[in-house]
Amino acid sequence: MFKFKTDQNSNLRVGKLKTNHGILQTPFFMPDATRGFVKLATTKDVLETGTEALVVNTFHLYLQPGLDLINKAGGVHQFMSSKQPLLSDSGGFQVFSLIHRSSKMGKIDDEKVTFKSPLDGSLHELTPEKSIQIQFILGTDMIVCLDDCPPNEFSRTQMEKSVERTLAWARRCKKEYLRQIKKRKITDAKRPLLFSVVQGGKEIDLRRYCASELAKIGFDGYGFGARPVDADGNFLAEILFETAQSIPKESLRFALGVGTPEDIYRCALMGWDMFDCVIPTREGRHGRLFFFKDDFKIKTLPDLKGPIEQAPDFYEAINIANTSWSQDFSPINQNSKIPELRTYSKSFLHHLFRLKEPLGQRLAALHNLEFFQDLLLKIRENKLK
């Protein structure tokens, strides 16, 4: 299912991953199709950007439009008219974020999570078993275990409890996963890939322990749990590196939520295979566009076999709403595969944003999605070295 080669100068792994909806080149980036769609983009748009796979959100799809409707459609692929590989998250990050922001929104215990819907206040329960069941109904190619996802700033005692709960829930998820495989008579060649999540906050020993115990259960891939930055926004390079090295070498490494260009670059060179984030479309909707620097060359980058604290300065981000772009008649991206980005000028895009025209947001979002896919292509082909 997953074969790769490791770069001789770094921990970068370049390979191929076979899924039920196609082969993916690793490392790869998945835009978030949170509620079954990438904001401002059609299926055709997404394909034109070079995007190979997407992430859908279990929590949001469960609440709206609901499982009955998706089941009647024949699964989430049919519902959203996509033939691309899809990964569904467990819903844990969203539920835990909801509760950690306000204890009035729910309760977490060793058995389950009880939460109020942010849509209508209705009460719901999410267990490890239910999360797996939902994801089988969605019919995605890759599914993720429910984990206890605490803030990185939790105390050592709280983090230890979180890790033990994550491990207990991973065992329950694996058991339910195998039950669903048997119940649905799914062959080994057609089964969805199962990922667990490594927790432990900023405690390296807890990350190693969690990864080791999860490996004993056995999964196709392992994800980095919680945010990849601390409370001050500092990139947790050492934690990400040590976590990657603690994951079984032959397994997929999923850096959940890693999404800035420099963080993707650093994590790829540290051995992570998969990435997802809302950044390309979210930043695009606010007029922020990413561009590679024409003269970019990496001359030296210290210790490519270890944590990479600083990424090279290989791109720039502009705010197209700034007046300085009002008379720039060059194409948004003259090298784009998307006709509109080669045709429309930066001046015209600036005009659209000044008038708050949705077409401008769409063009900017597509530009960023293509930039991110080009970034991963350059990484795979070592074009950034």
SSE topology:
Layout: E1 2-6, E2 13-19, E3 22-26, E4 28-31, H1 43-48, E5 54-56, H2 58-63, H3 67-73, H4 76-79, E6 86-88, H5 92-101, E7 106-108, E8 113-116, E9 123-126, H6 128-138, E10 142-144, H7 156-183, E11 193-198, H8 204-217, E12 221-224, H9 237-246, E13 252-255, H10 261-269, E14 274-277, H11 279-285, E15 288-292, E16 315-319, H12 339-343, H13 346-354, H14 358-380
Parallel strand pairs: 4-14, 5-6, 6-10, 10-11, 11-12, 12-13, 13-14
Antiparallel strand pairs: 1-2, 2-3, 7-8, 8-9, 15-16
Helix pairs in contact: 6-7, 7-8, 8-9, 10-14, 11-14, 13-14
Structure description:
Helix 7 links the parallel strand 10 and strand 11 (about 195-200). The chain has helices at about 45-50, 60-65, 65-75, 75-80, 90-100, 130-140, 155-185, 205-215, 235-245, 260-270, 280-285, 340-345, 345-355, 360-380; strands at about 1-5, 15-20, 20-25, 30, 55, 85-90, 105-110, 115, 125, 140-145, 195-200, 220-225, 250-255, 275, 290, 315-320. The protein contains 14 helices and 16 strands. By secondary structure, the protein is of the alpha/beta class. The longest helix is centred in the middle third of the chain and has 28 residues, at about 155-185. It has one domain (about 1-275): TIM Barrel. Helix 10 packs parallel to helix 14 and helix 13 (about 345-355) crosses helix 14 (about 360-380). The protein has an 8-stranded parallel sheet with strand order 4-14-13-12-11-10-6-5. The mean pLDDT is about 95. It starts with a strand and ends in a 5-residue tail after the last helix. The chain is globular, with a radius of gyration of 21 Å.
